[in-house]
């Protein structure tokens, strides 16, 4: 039996964050290198690792994008290997180098605690969407892990002059320096099936990337604030 399961054993550590398979994140924890992770995402760990739900450093920021459920992040500290997952979603690891990324709160799995982060209104959509839309912006030099419902596509918006249009329910993350605006379109064909007849897209332009998942999960996507 051990031989049959050998292919699933932990692999040698090569980076602070890396994939173990496509749907699990492995984090090499060390003293002084704390981590913020989505609450409830821990599936296993080795060594001595402590968890602090709703840490003071994150409480005020986190409460801005989720209400009635407490802070959606926990602080992880200690030495060992930490494994995180989010209901079988694909995990994408990003190593920021004095850079930033804007992520849907539901797609943010984990990030180094020393990174700067906050909830920001998506510019260019306030008039279009009423009260506006919000996202989590993480910036600095360090590691970030995001999730995708299926294998995502990363679109390079700088390859051409045309805008890139994305269904908000399929949007995972994007470069914050991109220009964003909203667009509505109406097609009679969309009245058939689950469509409402009115389609809403987000248009991106400029130099940067957009990460799109092959799923239209609208449970908590780019929530409109009151």
From TrEMBL:
InterPro entries: AIM24, AIM24_sf, Trp_RNA-bd_attenuator-like_dom. It holds the Pfam family AIM24. Transmembrane segments: none annotated. This is AIM24 family protein. It comes from Streptomyces badius.
């Amino acid at each position: 039996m051990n031989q049959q399961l050998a292919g699933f054993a932990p692999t040698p550590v090569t980076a602070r964050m890396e994939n173990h398979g496509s749907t699990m994140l492995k984090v090499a924890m060390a003293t002084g290198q704390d981590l913020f992770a989505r609450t409830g995402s821990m599936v296993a760990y080795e060594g001595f690792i402590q968890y602090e739900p709703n840490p003071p450093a994150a409480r005020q920021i986190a409460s801005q994008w989720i209400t009635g459920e407490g802070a959606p992040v926990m602080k992880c500290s200690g030495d060992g290997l930490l494994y995180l997952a989010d209901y079988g979603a694909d995990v994408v690891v990003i190593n920021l180098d004095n850079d930033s990324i804007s992520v849907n709160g539901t797609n943010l799995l984990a990030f180094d605690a020393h990174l700067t982060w906050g909830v920001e209104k998506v510019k260019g959509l306030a008039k279009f969407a009423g009260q506006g839309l919000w996202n989590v912006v993480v910036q600095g030099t360090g590691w970030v892990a995001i999730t995708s419902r299926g294998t995502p596509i990363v679109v390079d918006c700088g390859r051409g002059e045309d805008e890139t249009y994305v269904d908000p329910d399929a949007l995972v993350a994007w470069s914050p320096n991109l220009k964003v605006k909203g667009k509505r379109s109406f097609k009679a064909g969309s009245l058939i099936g689950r469509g409402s007849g009115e389609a809403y897209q987000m248009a991106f332009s400029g130099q940067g990337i957009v990460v799109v998942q092959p799923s239209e999960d609208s449970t908590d996507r780019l929530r409109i604030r009151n």
